[in-house]
Amino acid sequence: MSPALPASWSLRLALAWLATFALQAQTAPAPSGPQRRFALIIGNDQGGEGTRPLLYAADDARRMHEVLLRLGGTTPDDAMLLINDSSDDVLTALAEVERRIRDARQRGERTTLFFYYSGHAKDGALRLGSTKLPMESVKARLAQGPADMRVAVFDACRSGALTRTKGVRKAPAFEVETDATRAAKGLVILTSSASDEDSQESDAIGASYFSYHLVSGLLGSADQSGDGRVSLAEAYAYAYERTVAATADSAAGPQHPTFSFDLAGNGDLVLTDVVQRREGLRIPVEAPAGTYFLIDRRGVVVAEITKSEAERTIALAPGTYTVKRRLPDRLRVGEVKIVDGQLSTLDEAQLKNARFSDDPVKGTGLSTVYARHWSISATGQYQAIFDAPTTRGGIFPSAPLVGGEATVHNFFGRGFAWSFDGQYGWSTGAVASARLGTPATYRYSLITVGTSLLYEWNQEGSWVPFAGARLNLSLMSREFDDALFPRQGFTTMSPGVVLGLKYRIGRSFGLVARGRVHYLLYNVDETKNLGFAEVGLLVSYEFRD
Amino acid sequence: MRSSTLLSVLLFTACGGTWSNRDLEFAAALPSRAELSSKLPTSASSAQPLTRRDGLNAGDPSQAYADTKKAVTDFNGLLDFFLGVVDSVRSVSPTSRSGDSRTWGPFAAKDAPGFQFQVTIALVSSDPQETFGWKLQARKLGEQAWLDVVRGTFQASAETVRKGMGQIEVPVKEFRDQLKIDPAFAQLDSIVIGYVTNANPKLSTMTFTFAAGNPGGFSSAGYASRQADDGSGAMGFSLKTLDPNTSRLDIVSRWRTTGAGVAIATVAEGNYRGATRIECWDTSFKVVFFKETWPGGQESGVQSACVSIEGL
User: Fold this and answer.
1) What pLDDT is recorded for position A329?
2) A470 touches chain B (CB under 8 A)
3) What percent of chain B has pLDDT over 70?
4) What pLDDT sits at residue A204?
């Protein structure tokens, strides 16, 4: 391993080299055949023993796969996406890609392989679930690969000793060596962080910082030259700057992406072409200079474009986006709709002034709606037992309940909430056994505690539907009016499902209608498979920054 | 597969309790003190000292009422002694269940260190009526075999398991040598309590069978109680006296809800065997009529002042 250079030096050297390479590329003989781009995209949230699951590695891979198909000149047949697959699967897929590359070269086509990995790396190996793939062997395989150009991106983590802080998930340092292997030819390797740093994921953006900014750059944010094409140099510079800036204040400390290369003027390094598809948003020359944030319907900033004098194009996928430009005293906010196959033009006149308090996203441009936050609720509900009348008058009575709950939103990733609740219920009942003659009346009380894993849709909207699974612990007791009979109790753990809809009132308050259905096992007199349903109303308050 | 098994184990281990409708039927089939005890009306006025001069006159505190009250107290005390354990056991849920039986215990016997006890009840027949058999058993710690201390049967009525007729037996002879018991108690061979609770009045009897050679020379003795829903009732008992003419009296006391009652004592042992004494008392438990039929017997008041005991 070569001595580590200061990070700023690394960036300068990289850009200097990339500029030189670009010059060489212009002067090198033009390839004789058409260009063919292959991609092998790997994402794995699981790192096996000694690691904690990542939250966004698979999502990062999906986003990279999507942008390469849309803008990277890769056809669906030439792009392979492996999510949570094993090392054998990766090697098999790599062999298949290499076979296709060799076939393409035999036909005289100029070939590029884009290899992307997002997941754990530890002890010198990529960790794919419970399987391992030695990084040296991957590196050697790529170095000796048949493609004319090989671009490898590793966004990896290695350690299980992750330290969670608010909104940030630390990831271990990336271990792929940044020392160039001169024997290889036509290989560029980008890494998410230096070898002595942690790579980080963010709950707020729902991605790793590096992959998020790299994808954003490939959409056009990184097109500093304004030529409508994002080169490797531009993409790396953009991802580097944004990743360092975004992580500078994090508890884990700043994260510096690195690169290594061994190239000899093999060809073009343009990664995406944002104008050829003519789909997305054009920010015309006359638009005011500044940084534009493009926010999707989930509240996620998908691209940031710093516009100066020149026109800029961002290759957004079809959909509706919020556009925000920040001024010293206010915001300019509007909405644009990107139609399939069309290039929309931003009209400054359609943007409206907005106060900072009405910012659709705050701070660094990251959604707070999707940031992890707490909410508390007061509940009132009714529990009905699924117990057909029997000769003994049923087993459990139905009852009203009151209680409260606390929820951590976006805890297991964007949209996934973890909730804890407790209720108290009371009622009266009677054991109407024919053998007892006079019914044995009793006072019934019920305490339930539960935890739910929920998924919430449309968190930024007024109506937020949610659904999930719940584990419930019920402690029931009854006290008979007839002193002849002892107090009885029953405790049961029961799984169930939850379905509900929240209506936001203002920024923090909400009204929630919710239903639950649970299995209920009774096993004292006999074993009976019962169930219960709960319908309720909640008033919630969200603690959001 | 492993996770589903784990979930099943979790659900089953986290599930359980005492919530049982069927338990209520078993609990109701066990006899209770409240159901079988005799209830003699009392009032504040009855708290006056029952002193009497020689002889008895109308207006004096009723001795027959006092004797009856003592008999009722003794009868209820014995019920408490035998059924108190059953009642306290029933105040908690069974320790174990099978389809047609319930078991409470074994518990450590607080009053008899080194012993433990249990109560079991089982449905032994359902035709024509449900019949239960139950036992209060004890044993020394470390021993396997249980000794029956109290055992009973109960046949429920056709309408409800709360009412019916049953028998409770205390087989003293069977455990006299194995368990530590009071010397006075050891003079008995058995105590048998019979009861009918699905009739009005409810009936209960208590019969003591004495061991041969007991110091008192008794063979058997007992109580008989009837208790109507309206509070009226009757109690039959025997009374030993120091008078050789009336050394044992068999007494039947009957009373109304108001407290007024009549006691008829028949001389069972003594020189005046077969003679009787009638004593009536009013709602303030004072004599309104008194008559002895043996030679030299006394009479006071008018018999028409006696409360009617017809039907009791």
Assistant:
1) 78
2) no
3) 91
4) 66
Are B91 and B211 contained in the same domain? yes
Residues of B with Cβ-Cβ distance to A488 under 8 angstroms: 17-20, 23, 93
Position A369 scores a pLDDT of: 56
Chain A interface test: which of B15, B93, B96, B197 (most A C-beta within 10 Å): B15
Q: Do the Cβ atoms of B162 and A436 come within 8 Å?
A: yes
Query: A358 to chain B nearest CA, in Å?
Result: 47
Q: Which of A494, A495, A525 sits opposite B22 (nearest CB)?
A: A525
Is the residue at B8 inside a domain?
A: no
| Nearest-10 crossing angle of helices A209-216, A57-71 | 10
Provide DSSP, A354-416. Answer: E-GGG-SSBTTTB-STTS-EEEEEEEEEEEEEE----TT--SS--EEEEEEEEEEETTTSTTE
Q: What is the pLDDT of residue B49?
A: 43
Written as one string, the DSSP assignment of A290-356 is EEEEEE-TTS-EEEEEEE-SS-EEE-PPSEEEEEEEE-SS-EEEEEEEEPTT-EEE--GGG-EEE-G
Q: Is residue B105 part of a domain?
A: yes
Q: Does residue B123 sit in the same domain as residue B186?
A: yes
Interface confidence (ipTM) of the complex: 0.78
Cβ distance of B14 and A492 shorter than 8 Å = yes
Are B11 and A494 inside 8 Å of each other by CB?
yes
DSSP character at residue A95: H
- Which domains are seen in chain A, by residue range? 36-266 (3.40.50.1460), 280-358 (2.60.40.1120), 373-543 (2.40.160.20)
A522–B28: do the CB atoms touch at under 8 Å?
no
- Which residue in the set B15, B93, B97 is minimally distant from A488, CB to CB? B93
pLDDT, block means (10 residues), chain A with 545 residues: 40 46 38 77 88 84 93 92 94 94 91 92 85 87 88 70 27 32 58 74 78 90 83 86 79 74 60 85 89 80 81 88 85 90 89 73 48 90 78 77 94 87 93 82 94 90 92 94 91 94 89 95 87 95 82
Residue B106: domain span: 28-44+65-227
Note whether B121 contacts A: Cβ–Cβ < 8 A: no
Cβ-Cβ contacts under 8 Å, B7 against chain A: 495
Min CA distance, A378 vs chain B (Å)? Answer: 27
Q: Find the residue in B nearest to A519 (Cα).
A: B11
Residues B170, B78: one domain?
yes
* Residues B133 and B264 both lie in one domain: no
Give the tens place of pLDDT for each residue, B59-98: 888 988 998 998 899 889 888 887 887 888 888 899 999 8
* Minimal C-alpha gap between B41 and chain A (Å): 23
- Pairs across A and B, CB distance < 8 A: 97
Bigger pLDDT: B20 or A328? B20
B210 and B263 assigned to the same domain: no
Same domain, B105 and B78: yes
Contact B19 A489 (CB under 8 A): yes
User: Do the Cβ atoms of B32 and B217 come closer than 8 Å?
Assistant: no
Selected residue with higher pLDDT from B300 and A21: B300
Q: Are B238 and B216 in contact (CB under 8 A)?
A: no
Which residues in chain A are closer than 8 Å to B16, comparing Cβ atoms? Answer: 490-492, 523-524
- Kindly report the CA angle at B101 between B156 and B157, in degrees rounded to 5? 5
A391 touches chain B (CB under 8 A): no
For chain B, the domain total comes to 2
User: Read out DSSP for A174-225?
Assistant: P-S--S--TTS-SEEEEESS-TTS--EEETTTTEEHHHHHHHHIIIIIT-TT
> In whole numbers, what is the pLDDT of chain B averaged over residues?
85
Residue A102 burial (10 A CB sphere; 0-12, 13-18, 19+): middle
Does B49 reside within a domain?
Answer: no
